Amino acid sequence: TVKKVNQIELPELNDEFAAKAGPYTSMNDLRQDIEAEITAQQERQATDQLKDDLVKQLVESSDVAVPEVLRQDQIRSLEQDLVQNLRYRGMTLEQYYESRGLADRDAWLKAEANEAADARIKAGLVLAELSKELAIEATADELASHINAYKQQYANNAEMAKRFDQPEAQREIANRLITEKTVDKLVELNLPEDKSKTKPAKSTIATDKANKSSETSKSAAKKPNAKSKKAAK
């Protein structure tokens, strides 16, 4: 039985409330700040969606063969990420398989992992080739800045922070940075001419260099080198 019902009293939305919420002098300032943050978040989401669409279209327009060695490496990476994410959620792989209606690991490979691995590899190979066509590189200053950022992120874990001094880790960061810059360039090449527009143009692969990269990506996939393998991850 219900013995007591407490009434919730909401605070009055006035200048006093705004001052308690942050560095605001009025409720109008607080409203404007919230609206600006919502707009910025929507723009970030639109840009992220555009990036995904452009990379997907570039991959679909490319004839890329996926080397089996890269597929197996990527599947292992996917599985490690999945195990880590499930651990945070208090789940095991077996529980995940059951929640997805999958019998075992083989069923997971067939239903999810193989396709996801191939998509990542193709995107990595195509973007690596495009970065060459666009002559995109990671400068020493950019690399140092990213390495320092990672070290600061793991400031409380000396062993993990020290890992970023190793050449292999720095190559991985450099490849990741080049990929990010390549995707940003791809977005730039597909934005409308009127830069004042906040809404990106509909995703279209419309540059000669991007198309040229699509034509040459198959040969790059047939002879993957260490750099391409890193980019695929």
Estimate the strand proportion.
under 5%
Shape from CA axes? extended
Number of strands: 0
Oligomer: single chain
Total domains, how many?
Answer: 1
Describe this structure in words.
This protein is mostly helical and 233 residues long. The protein has one domain. 70% of the residues lie in helices and 0% in strands. It is built from ten helices and no strands. α2 crosses α8. It is extended, with a radius of gyration of 23 Å. It starts with 14 loop residues before the first helix and ends with a helix. The C terminus is likely disordered.
Ordered list of secondary-structure elements with their pairings:
Elements: H1 15-21, H2 27-60, H3 68-88, H4 93-99, H5 105-133, H6 140-153, H7 158-163, H8 167-190, H9 208-222, H10 226-232
Helix pairs in contact: 1-2, 2-5, 2-8, 3-5, 5-8, 5-9, 5-10, 6-8
